[in-house]
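User: Here's a chain of 117 residues. Predict its fold as tokens.
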Amino acid sequence: MLVEKLKAEWPGILSWMIQGCLEWQTSGLGVPEVVTEATASYLEAEDAIGAWIEECCERKPQAWETHAALFGCWSKWAEKAGEPQRSGKSFTQSLGDRGYHPDRLQGQRGFYGLKIL
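Assistant: Prediction complete.
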């Protein structure tokens, strides 16, 4: 008897389906908040460069360290932590992603904003 009961509702059900389809086409599927939070938590846990900065560096806007010193410190930390080694280019890009951009001081490549502890 369910089919007979729903027959009277078919126009409303079809309208609801069409509205939902149009909304999906214009807005897409939203990501549930629980998924967004879980992803952020996972990425934070997997952020080796961020962990290295927290453990081995001090953030100071006027601080300066050479690329070689930072990369050497990172490499030692990564080896002890069991993290895969990065290339110098990948390391530089990772720091750039965090707002530390390469610069030159007295002919040496390095970064402002980080000081090795």
